[in-house]
Give the backbone structure.
Amino acid sequence: MKIAVLVSGGGTNLQAIIDKIASGEIQNTEISVVVSNNRKAYALERAKAANIPAVGLSVKQYPDREAFYDAVIETIDSYQVDLIVLAGCLMYIPPKLIQKYHNRIINIHPSLIPSFCGKGYYGLAVHEKVLERGVKVTGATVHFVDEILDNGPILLQKPVLIEDGDTPEALQLRVMQQAEWIILPQAINLLAQGKVVIEGNKARII
Ligand code: GRF
């Protein structure tokens, strides 16, 4: 299975995928390209260090947003991938990309969807809201991407307990270590082995 990984930041989720392909925990998978909407994203450095094609595209390079989105789509299309993985990707995913790759785009979100997701819930803000609300359990979710933000069929989730004295930063790191970096590679491995079926708004592992 050939995948494109879309990134915007530090790329720790990308690194987990790279490492687990190398260790054999993810089978039958090749990262064909890493694409970022942030040309300074450290994730691009991680791709280059792993000899993976890395493409940084900035909306500022284009006359308008549509032209930028077309460039992102053309770049992904040129690698003829089977799956698109959003890994710490803060870029708006245009409907035409979602339609073109229907049920072939997955995202990692740092909460147990449908809690703490949707507009404004990304990065550290998620964990700030989690602590503010006083929930006892949070976690991460891998879901398929549809045209509503953080709404598509849920594929995997993993809980993480809140600990006394948690700060947003400490919680974010623990959610990445204990959940994101585990379930995103697991999801890719399941898809690479044809073990996932989507039925309506649900994803099932067979
Ligand atoms: C993390 O908060 C992660 O939960 C979210 O994007 C942020 C950065 O991830 N998906 P990464 O280190 O760039 O993979």
Observations:
- The mean pLDDT is 97.
- Strands lie at 2-7, 30-36, 54-56, 83-86, 105-109, 137-144, 154-161, 196-199, 202-205.
- DSSP finds six helices and nine strands in the chain.
- Residues 7, 9-14, 43, 87-88, 108, 110, 123, 172, 176, 180 surround 5-O-phosphono-beta-D-ribofuranosylamine (CB under 6 Å).
